[in-house]
Amino acid sequence: MSTDHLDGNAAAGALREIFTTDLTAATGTCASCGNVATVAQAVLYTNAPGLVGRCPGCEAVLFRLVRGPGRAWLDLRGVTCLEFALPDPS
């Protein structure tokens, strides 16, 4: 059996650092049309059971964010990649 991997718990520190960053400044690539824009440029719909962000270029759904008591669901399947700055570690 191979021992060149860990379970997902090993990513906890890296994920915690990312999810404390302001992601509206992140640059995303639309999975549908390839448009590159910041999350802040998404067309946001709030008349749903959560938030729906659509591509400003082709109007495809980029993300969905739904919150419930003590939890949240984030669907980013419309974004192929997010690029964002990390806080200065000092």
Quaternary status of these chains? Answer: single chain
How would you sum up the major sheet?
A: 4 strands, antiparallel
What portion of residues belong to β-strands? 35-45%
Instruction: Give the domain tally.
Output: 1
Give helix and strand order, one letter per element, not per position: HEEEEEEE
The best one-word shape is globular
Strand order of the largest sheet: 3-4-5-6
Proportion of helical residues: under 10%
Class per helix and strand makeup:
mainly beta
Number of distinct beta strands: 7
Q: Distance between termini?
A: 40 Å
Average residue pLDDT = 91
Query: Rg to the nearest angstrom?
Result: 15 Å
- SS element count, helices: 1
Task: Extract low-pLDDT stretches.
Answer: none
InterPro entries: DUF6510
Describe what you observe in this structure.
InterPro entries: DUF6510. It holds the Pfam family DUF6510. This protein is mainly beta. The chain has one domain (8-83). It is built from one helix and seven strands, in the order H-E-E-E-E-E-E-E. The strands form two sheets. The protein has a four-stranded antiparallel beta sheet, with no helix packed on it. A three-stranded antiparallel beta sheet has the order 2-1-7, with no helix packed on it. A hairpin with a 5-residue loop joins strand 1 (27-30) and strand 2. It is globular, with a radius of gyration of 15 Å. The model has no long low-confidence stretch (mean pLDDT 91).
